[in-house]
Prior knowledge:
By secondary structure, the chain is of the alpha+beta class. The protein has six helices and twelve strands. The protein is globular and about 55 Å long. The mean pLDDT is 93.
Amino acid sequence: MWTGLLDYLESEDLDLPSLQETIIGGSAVPRSMIAQFDKEYGVKVIHAWGMTEMSPLGTINRPLPFMTELSYEQRLDIQCKQGRAPYGVELKIADDDDNILPNDGLAFGRLLVRGPWVVERYYKQAGTALDNDGWFDTGDVATIDEYGFMQITDRSKDIIKSGGEWISSAEIENVAIAHREIQIAACIGAKHPKWDERPLLLVVKKPGSEPTKSSIREHVAQSVAKWQVPEGIEFIEEMPLTATGKIDKKPLRAKFGGYYLNE
């Protein structure tokens, strides 16, 4: 929705004189979009995150006083995170063996939440949805920094395991969308004989644009490690979306499930 708005404003040479800020929480907001809203339209993007199971707010990214001393790029780094938990909500990250991971902004693990209005069980289900200590597993993979800012790196089902290392499909997507000739992009895992999985980037071009695969790789390589850059890039006519406007990867996996990278 916001990509469409920005494209319309640009094509019609319009402004947003009455809009001061907007809260976006349906999907992770690309860094380029946060900067574009700010620099071109004077609109502050407030990141937020939540789930129906949390009734629904989990975090909101309001600035803290220390951020006024940071550079613009450093503040932007924090704005890209989903934010801090409101009163009543607890967050933690844990590995697959339930060991609690440090809040250092680097370690990432399963995001668990707890609070008085977090779901206890699903409708018509006899069993609890919580662990023995009352924590709910969100299905997201995230980091939490020293100030409590949480950042989702991926859904656990979407993260790509390549040669024993994890690659965030969400990070690749957000970087790719900053390419001026890309309308929208989705990243899924493709089979690879040596590395098990490698990123496959599926791209919808902007109308009237003809980006090359090499230009997209070069663009992505500026922001991620070399081993994370997708070898596989395919152009598609239309991106499948859910009813709420999020990228629906199920039909993409069904269509490209046999995609095999030999590089």
